[in-house]
Predict the structure.
Amino acid sequence: MITVEHLTKKYGKKVAVDDLSFTLRPGAVTGFLGPNGSGKSTTMRCMLGLDQPTSGNVLFDGKPYREMKAPLCEVGALLDGKAFHPGRTARQHLRIIAAGNGISRKRVDEVLEMTGIASAAKKKLKGFSLGMGQRLGIASALLGDPKVLMFDEPVNGLDPDGVRWVRELARSFAAEGRTVFISSHLMSEMSVTADDLVIIGKGKLIAQGPISAFTQSRAHTSVKVEGPNPTQILQAIAQAGYEPEFRQPAEGYPQGWIEIRGAQRSEIGKLLYARNLEIHELSESHSSLEDVFMELTENSMDYRVAGNTEKNGNTPETGNGTAAEGTR
Ligand SMILES: Nc1ncnc2c1ncn2[C@@H]1O[C@H](COP(=O)(O)OP(=O)(O)O)[C@@H](O)[C@H]1O
Ligand SMILES: [Mg+2]
């Protein structure tokens, strides 16, 4: 278990990470999501002792990173904007890290294989593409066969095959019981990779929880009803205390249809049945993770599309540690 407790990092007056707390469990991929500039890289650097937090603690199974005897064998990290010596080859680069950490040369060749860059082992790093650089960064994270993997925006610069490869790698490490923490500003990628999510905006926690909590939360469901007598249907639902909304006729719905947000199909079905009302469609949909993410981070973006700044007082609470529902 990794615990981040009240982590704050200030650069002068700029608060990059603001009283951030969350936990990461082994055997799961946790996606660390937030818009650009929200403090993901800073948080990861603080977790790894590469940046000194202004306040707060980060503990890996109860101990701070700096107290680890062989950190590379406990935590493997791929960070944003890593620097490579351009004149070295991939193998030399990894051998230097290995040698400094008591790791065998055999392991260097293993990780070159695992990351699909064995054929480029003798190539100088200045000739590496962004994608190959990411693979090399992952190779160095894997050198110590660590129980914890932290990847900062690992799919940046990767082609679709590379993206799928990172996803499968992350999933397989979690399946082995390791703790995997991956940052991204793209919800679409995390929705297919992560089990849990930690979402931040402007350095603050917006929500954390299993991915299912974000889409299956009542706040993000919507029921659609269609029938020959929309007025009666609308009335019956409103009388039961819901807030149905009439949707104008559209293709396939010549009389329009009715949407009830935050309701469940079974409840609406039951009440319409009790009123003897004929219906032709009753369905339930869940917001996509992308929608939920946009909604959650809307108030924490530095730049927004004009006219979209004051949306229905939907200010996320911070730091309550619960999933999507906790943001109401
Ligand atoms: N070394 C630094 N000095 C000053 N400001 C920084 C530094 N590193 C990051 N920041 C600022 O902190 C905020 C968070 O940055 P960062 O952690 O890189 O966000 P993310 O990784 O989510 O894009 C940004 O506003 C960034 O400009
Ligand atoms: Mg970053």
In short: Residues 160-175 form the longest helix (16 residues). The two ends are 28 Å apart (CA to CA). The chain is about 30% helix and 25% strand.
